[in-house]
Amino acid sequence: MAADKLGLVTRSHAGGYVVFLPEDGVTLNCQARGRIKKERSSILVGDRVELGELDLNRKEAVIIRCLERSSQSSRPNIANVDQVVIVQAIAQPEWNQLWCDRYIVHFQLEMPDTMPILCINKCDLAPGDQALSLRNIYEELGYRVLLCSAASGIGMDELAEMLCGRITVLAGPSGVGKSSLLNRLEPNLELKTGIMENEFGVGRHTTTASELYQLNPHFENLMLSSTQKSDIAWVADTPGFNLAELRCPEPQEVMWQFPEIVKLKESCRFSNCLHLVEDGCVILEEINRDDTSPVLVERYLSYASIMQHSQEAYEERRSTSTKIESTTKVTGGVLIPKLKGKYRAASRRKEKQRVVYDIDPDEEDSDSDDNED
User: Fold this and answer.
1) In the chain, what are the domain boundaries?
2) In CATH, which of 3.40.190.10, 3.40.50.410, 1.10.240.10, 2.40.50.140 is domain 5-68?
3) Is the pLDDT of residue 198 over 50?
4) What integer pLDDT is reported at residue 360 of this predicted model?
5) Taking a C-beta distance cutoff of 8 angstroms, is the pair 212, 235 a contact?
6) What are φ and ψ of residue 63, in 5° steps?
7) Does the N-terminal peptide bond of residue 93 adopt cis geometry, omega within 30 degrees of 0?
8) Cα(118)–Cα(105) distance, rounded to whole angstroms?
């Protein structure tokens, strides 16, 4: 048996966990120690774990404990993520401004300490300079933008350089080419990919679970420095998810996810303005000007759509909460249903008051007179 070592969880399944051991460069099949199961501590893909009872010959070990996480993404549920790359296709499926902005807002809320990176894939299918125009839009807002093509190899060196030495999540709708990008970087992965099979340009799910993939072997063929080539890149190819599954911000949070709205807000005379229908709002005036940039208009439409969805979700939560509070009560920290009046026993205090009020005042006076005699 080897001494305790540290490993990285790269996949979880019904039978246990797959853990990579950096010191030995091997992958082990692991079980969680019984104490961890009893504590119901969750072990996630991306967790750094301490291993015991190592058997390198059989490639087995036991997870003793989970180290503290530096970050965690709930959708997808992965720990210790260093950066998120949002993959969007410029065609097949067709570029969708709202989709892109919703993903950006989602991951800004998920990981507020890092800016999401935008990867525009299938640039070989872009008409004219559309790809460059999109990059200019988001770079001016402070986002890093990569123009790539898994089919032709455009931008692969830049993408590989950005992945080195980090744990990265590739996120985006189905069909935008997340798995294809990974296969281009590391052909040995042989990840399942799909093709566009309908006229609407909607992708089909080919990735069904999150898993960390090691990409460093194929980096030897890329134009990277010797230091970068020695760094392991871990990338999670995640299942695509739709707009309804993206994290919905609170109404007061939405504005802060749009840098251009925040900048214009400084000139707005209303301190609590939502910039939707308010008369005299400087942002609405800017949007309605004839010479307003079409880019600002498109981004504002995304802002208004996300704000509307946020307000609807907020009202639904509030109404549901009111109904629950009116029919339940907390007893001993547990939420239990309230009984209707006809089923509820009277309290001791009310019973005591009823007894006092049922006494006849005349009888009480006569009793007092008898006592005086």
Assistant:
1) 5-68, 74-245, 251-323
2) 2.40.50.140
3) no
4) 55
5) yes
6) -80, 115
7) yes
8) 12
